[in-house]
Design a protein that fits this description.
about 240 residues, alpha+beta, 2 domains, seven-stranded antiparallel sheet, four-stranded antiparallel sheet, 5 helices
């Protein structure tokens, strides 16, 4: 298990991992062979902060925030950790995949604001594709989209939804419609569509209400940084 160590004197954070003493393997073109090079990455902390006060940090279970897709090895991650008395906001990042991961203490507090939106363009495009009805009035399409938008407006973005699904983008989650929302949309759709149109709309709703459908709601996360009034000098 990885450990975070903070140098109290420098206000710098380092990560201690089981791989710090694993050897590196380098290829020699002239011989066509690999050779091992001993590594002691953990000694960097010891050398640079010899005689300094250090303390162990515990990462909190608070929601983390990251920028960019999850698969990006260079994505920036923000999280909180504590020494038991003080909580620190920490930025995890690196400039390239060849560089080691760095940890910087960010003076202040991070608030994650969430909003819920609909997939308006995709919804309209999918409606016209699936219904395959050129005579479907533009006004009816827009009224239906307004009904879905109303369902999104009545969702509390800060609620802890049990069925939320992560996307490849760390800043976006998808929320499938629940039974109550589907029932409400169907009921309101009866005032717009009649006869065969309504049956097609009902089928469209049920086919696209899951997390990967165009009727699923989009939960967007936006970071808001609240700077600290007074901060310690950073050194790393």
């Amino acid at each position: 298990m990885n450990t975070l160590i903070r140098c109290v004197d420098c206000n710098a954070v380092y990560e201690i991992t089981p791989f710090d003493q694993c050897p590196e393997y380098h290829y020699t073109e002239t011989t066509g062979e690999y050779h091992a090079r001993e590594c002691h990455d953990d000694l960097d902390l010891t050398r640079r902060h010899r005689g300094h006060r250090t303390e162990k940090l515990t990462i909190l279970d608070n929601p983390q925030y990251s920028e960019g897709p999850y698969y990006d090895p260079q994505r920036i991650v923000y999280f909180e950790a504590t020494n038991g008395n003080i909580t620190f906001l920490i930025k995890r990042w690196r400039q390239s995949v060849q560089d080691p991961i760095r940890y910087d203490i960010v003076p202040g507090r991070l608030e994650i604001q969430k909003t819920i939106e609909i997939q308006k363009r995709s919804l309209e495009k999918q409606m016209r594709h699936e219904l395959n009805n050129p005579s479907l009035a533009e006004e009816k399409v827009h009224k239906f989209i307004a009904i879905v938008q109303d369902a999104a407006l009545h969702c509390d973005p800060d609620k802890n939804f049990p069925d939320v699904y992560e996307s490849n983008d760390a800043q976006i989650d998808y929320l499938p419609l629940d039974k109550e929302q589907i029932s409400s949309i169907l009921k309101k759709s009866r005032t717009i569509f009649t006869g065969d149109e309504f049956h097609k709309i009902e089928r469209f709703i049920r086919n696209n209400c899951d997390y990967n459908g165009v009727l699923s709601l989009v939960v967007k996360k936006t970071p808001v940084f609240h700077p600290a009034a007074h901060s310690e000098p950073l050194s790393n």
